[in-house]
Amino acid sequence: MNCIIIEDEVPAQEILSAYIGKIPDMEIKGIFNSPLKANSVLKQEKIDLIFLDINLPTISGIDFLKTLQHPPKVIMTTAYDKYAVESFEYEAIIDYLVKPFSFERFLKAINKLESRSENRELNTQQLESLEITSSKEAVFINVDKTLHKVNIEDIIYVQSDRNYVTVSTRNSKLTFIDTLKNWDNYLEPDYFVQIHKSFIVNINFIDKVTGNLVYINQEKIPVGRSYKDELFDKIKPIN
């Protein structure tokens, strides 16, 4: 896997370089303190992953990402947790690392990238076998020739990632080819609400809402700006 680092802080560059050096099959193709200096490498080399700082001179990491027509996968780095929510608005972004971050947290981001890549390797035969049948209380999801019964009330959230959907329940996570839009037909509107272009959540599992984040079972799920009013209409907070 070819990667580059776009980071203007030398200590952060050194930490990322050291961590990447511990991962087999990862090769650094360049380290840059400005996104503009990385442009030529992105045009000339096949880059699979960018470690991209948000706060950079001349142009921010987010704004630079917007200029790329077909961006590689991106792991954002930032010293400020508040910027992480905005980063989820872009499909290319796999994860974000809040500085300073440990090797364990770095490895979690890499594993998330590899997990998504594996999910996309479903072949055409598997695609044709995927289907969902439903009743009011449950759905049966056919994944890899196995029917999985999922009780609607046990669904914690549904997450989309391009052509894939992951249904997270109390006991399992099922990933298969589908769109988030289709799940409007399966989920009970009284207690499911879309809070982001990539997430529908069950409000019965929400632990708390802070700023633009929903907390469910110690997971942080971003709330998109255009979905915030609908979320608060659904949970009806008491002031």
Automatic annotation (TrEMBL):
Q: By its UniProt entry, which SMART domains does this protein fall under? A: LytTR (SM00850), REC (SM00448)
What sequence ranges are listed for the domain Response regulatory? 2-114
Organism source for this protein?
Polaribacter batillariae
Protein name per UniProt: Response regulator transcription factor
Q: Which domain of life is it from?
A: Bacteria
Q: In what residue span(s) does the HTH LytTR-type domain sit?
A: 143-237
Sites of 4-aspartylphosphate modification: D53
- A Pfam family hit: LytTR
Q: Which parts pass through the membrane?
A: none
The root-end lineage is: Bacteria, Pseudomonadati, Bacteroidota, Flavobacteriia, Flavobacteriales
Keywords of this entry: Phosphoprotein
